[in-house]
Design a protein that fits this description.
The structure is a single chain. This protein is mainly alpha-helical and about 280 residues long. It contains 16 helices and no strands. Helix 8 runs antiparallel to helix 9, helix 10 packs antiparallel against helix 11 and helix 14 runs antiparallel to helix 15. The longest helix has 15 residues. The protein is extended, with a radius of gyration of 26 Å. The N and C termini lie far apart (about 75 Å).
């Protein structure tokens, strides 16, 4: 097993020397722009401590060694370099990454989810995370990956919805399925009809893209008791499905409308003269 090397720490040392030698070469903004380019160049520079360039150092590892090295970085509190992450990402390494998806640390879980991506091989571990005691941020990251390959996640998402587990997330995942079927459409439509989160459920119908939802959406948007947030999202869903709603509506007294209007107002420049 290769030793852990803090390539980012070595880069920072080299960068500090370079800045000290060239203090006037760039402005502060200029340094912000050039540092990422220098970091990329560093990936192809021979590092004696590693006996290779940073990119070569990781390129010679197996998939399992790469992922084990990633885990050791967290265990031994050594910064994870972008070169390691990019090598894992380039290869896929999903089989090896699945082992990290059972780790308790949120930081490594987040990174493992991002690196595993929407690979179907990671889905069993992803659904375990969604139904376990992890943070909302982790669940959101997992949900995004499942949405990226929603048709492959369909059966498990339907099963968990039926079991009453994380139903909103299951609906969100199912709404991204490209293959249309009546079961998913019915679930999404019923959630819109009966749920409290009208804007969210309207967005699911818009994402699913089944124009059969138009009559229900058009009926709802014409209600007198609809608020501005609901109106805006339902109108978007109608338009996304190829429909149109042109009836004038007055929301000036709606608290949601007032709040959005207030937030959208530009701050007044105290130095700018007015006609008053």
């Amino acid at each position: 097993m290769k030793k852990l090397i803090d390539f980012d720490g070595l880069f920072d040392e080299k960068l500090a020397e370079y800045i000290q030698q060239n203090p006037e070469r760039y402005t502060e903004k200029g340094w912000e722009n050039v540092i990422p380019k220098l970091y990329q160049k560093f990936g192809d520079i021979y590092v004696a401590k590693a006996g290779a360039t940073p990119k070569e150092y990781y390129a010679t590892m197996t998939d399992e060694e790469l992922v084990e090295t990633l885990g050791r970085h967290f265990d031994e509190n050594v910064p994870v370099s972008d070169f390691l992450c990019r090598e894992i990402e380039k290869r896929g390494c999903t089989d090896a990454l699945v082992a990290l998806l059972s780790r308790p640390e949120e930081e490594i879980l987040t990174l493992a989810v991002n690196l595993a991506g929407s690979s179907e091989k990671a889905f069993p571990a992803y659904f375990t995370l969604l139904t376990s005691d992890v943070s909302a941020d982790i669940k959101e990251a997992v949900c995004e990956q499942l949405k990226g390959n929603a048709d492959a996640a369909r059966e498990r998402a339907l099963a968990l919805y039926a079991e009453g587990k994380e139903q909103e997330m299951m609906l969100e995942i199912l709404s991204r399925c490209k293959q249309r079927d009546d079961e998913i459409f019915t679930l999404l439509l019923n959630a819109f009809r009966t749920g409290d989160e009208v804007p969210m459920h309207a967005s699911y119908l818009a994402a699913y893209g089944d124009e059969r939802a138009l009559p229900v959406l058009l009926e709802y948007i014409d209600r007198d008791d609809i608020n501005f947030l609901e109106f805006r999202e339902v109108k978007y869903a109608i338009e996304a499905l190829g429909g149109e709603y042109t009836k004038p509506r007055d929301f000036t007294a709606d608290p949601y409308y007032q709040e959005i209007l207030e937030q959208s107002r530009l701050p007044v420049d105290p130095d700018k003269k007015t006609d008053a």
